[in-house]
Request: fold
Amino acid sequence: KKTMMMMRRRRRRRRRRRRRRRRRRRRRGSRRRRRRRRRRRRRRRRRRRRRRRRRRRRRRRRRRRRR
Reply:
C-alpha cells in the first residue's frame, strides 16, 4: 500500500514551466560584435517577438482567469 501511495503522489505533482530570457546573448562578446549581431537580429526578433508575445500573453491571462 505504501508503494502505491508514493507512486500516486509522484504522478500528481504539477510541473512548473520556466520562462527563458534571451538577455544573456546580448552580454556575450565584445561591443563591436554586439552591435553587428544586434542590427541583424533586432529586425528579425522584433517582428517575431511582438507577434509571439501578444499571443502568449493572451493565452496566459486566459489560463490564469480560469484557475
In short: Helices lie at 2-12, 24-27, 31-66.
